[in-house]
Structure formats: structure tokens, C-alpha cells
Amino acid sequence: MSFSCYPLFSAALFFEFFLLSFLALLPSSDCLVNVTRGRIPRELSVNFYAKSCPQVDQIVASVTSEQFREAPVSAPATVRLFFHDCFVEGCDASILISTRQGSKDLAERDALDNKELAVEAFESINKAKALVESKCPGVVSCADILAIAARDFVHLTGGPYYQVKKGRWDGKFSMASRVPSNIPHSNSTVNELLRLFSSKGLTLEDLVVLSGAHTIGFSHCKHFVDRLYNYKGTKQPDPAIDPRLLKALKMSCPQFGGNTDIVAPFDVTTPFSFDNAYYGNIESKLGLLASDQALSLDPRTKPLVQALAKDKQKFFLAFAAAMDKMGSIGVKKGPRHGEKRRDCSMHM
After folding, report:
1. Each residue of 114-159: pLDDT tens digit?
2. pTM of the model
3. Signal peptide: which range, if any (predicted)?
4. Which residues make up each annotated binding site?
């Protein structure tokens, strides 16, 4: 975003109904990665804590594995948290800062675009940080713990296991006002996505590959309801949506007055497994968001969508490399530019 026995949080009954109704309309029908590609800042290293906290990966893994058993939604939620952190001011855990009580200046996590970030993601990082602090006080940054945890959850859902380079410091600033212009939106065009990714030092390939994280996770109706009833003001559904998916989604997401807690899976065929089905889905007009479906329609991105749909291992290798590259965006280094928080939600 594998997810066996997945408790479907607040929308459990809806999701079971949605998935069964959609699948009824359809015809019947190994993962260690070494990442060496891409430019990584010199200060980041797989062995950064080799002397100061050599067991950090294992410590975080003990938390993420337990969290995954207790709340599997933590997996897609934490991966999304990492994306939103890196795209706003870089991978510096600024997304984890809580707004000070009584302050008019909201922190990133309280931005409107971040309101739907699941609490389980924050809980995962807070638990991991507390355990790491008990073993290696004042050593490991929240930013590094978030990067490690995101990797763990990718692997726990069936995706690749890759080495995480470390050495990030935590950011000193967290401003909600910086969020809207720095993250993708559900109706972003390919041109808008390419401009945004380019501004972060990421390529067209990175865009398509990182979008594959939508092989797990869910979205609320409000992010795609216009595709069902009034696409681009036409008062008609998006023609690039399969009629079977359209029918299933309309049963659960009315145009007006629906339950705001209702969610649908990004990947309607294998929603609980980190695999390459996302790409085959958007080839078949089974993308949930307009921004996802657009990748299979644009001639610049379509060839890579087709290639990744055919080859899961190619996707896994590319995804590991892209996560490694994204994890180097805006890295803070040293006390002049960063801090090492003891509590991830509070500046030092």
C-alpha cells in the first residue's frame, strides 16, 4: 500500500460489501533488494548508527511487526506519512510535530490536506521512538525512524525489503501553510505531477514508480466522487472508469449526503497486498483516483505503466530505488539546520 485477516477500521462493513460487490462483477481470472542507484547525500549511510545504535533496524522492526498485527491500516498509513513528510520541507519528520496549544500557526499535520492521515501511523512512529530512546537515548532521529518504519511496512504487506540509509536530523520548523502546494492531489494532472516531482529532484520514472504505493491503502469518497457523477463539470461519469467499478462505487458513494467515513481501496483487485496489480488495474480503467488513472492515459507515462504491470520484480527493484531517492529529499544535517527530538511531536 500480506494483509491477511485485515480489520477494516471505521469502514469495515462498507469495504467488505464494496469489495464483494465489485469482485462479483469481474470475470474470474521473495523480496530482498539492494539499492545502489541514485545520488544520496554523503551524510546518509546504511551503517550511520553502527556504533551509536547498531540494533536500530531491529528495534523499530519489533514495533512495526507488532503494530501491523494489531492495526494493519498502519502499513499504508505510515507509507503515506513518509511521502507527505518528504514532499514538504524534506524528510525531516516535520509532519510529526503537533501544533502548540493556543497557537494560530498550525503545524503540518494539522493542514487540511493532512487531516486524513491515520492516527495509527503516528502511533507507530511514537512507539518505535520510545523504544529506540530506551536503548539509544538522544541518538536516532525521528526522521530516520519514519524512513525505517515505512520500509518495514512495505515489506510486511508483501513488498520489497531494502536497506534504509540513515543520518537525517529532524527539522526545526513545521508549517501547515507549506503543505497544499507541495503534495499531489487526487485530481492532479500528469503535467502538475511532473512539475511537482521535478521540484523535488524526482523524475517521470519516479512519479510512476512511487505512485505504485497505491497498491495498498484507501481513499475517502470525496476524493473521487466527481469522477462518478460530474467529471470536469460534464454532469457525466469519467469515461476512463470501468462501468463495473463505477457501479460498485456509486452504491457506496452517493453524489450528495453520503457517509464521510466511507472509503474504497486504491487497488480493487488485491487491496491488501503490496504487488504490481495497481498498474494492471489502471491499464484496465480500474484506477480509483483521476491522478492514478491519468498515468495510463498519458503517452509519456503509459509505457512505464505497461512495463511495470507485466513485471512485479521490476516494480519492486524500481520502487526500492525510488524510495531511497525520495528519502534523500531536503535532508537536514547538524544542529545548525536540525535537531534530535526525544519526543517526535515536540521541537527541542
Report:
1. 999 999 999 999 999 999 999 999 999 999 999 999 999 999 999 9
2. 0.89
3. 1-31
4. 85, 88, 90, 92, 94, 108, 184, 214-215, 267, 270, 275
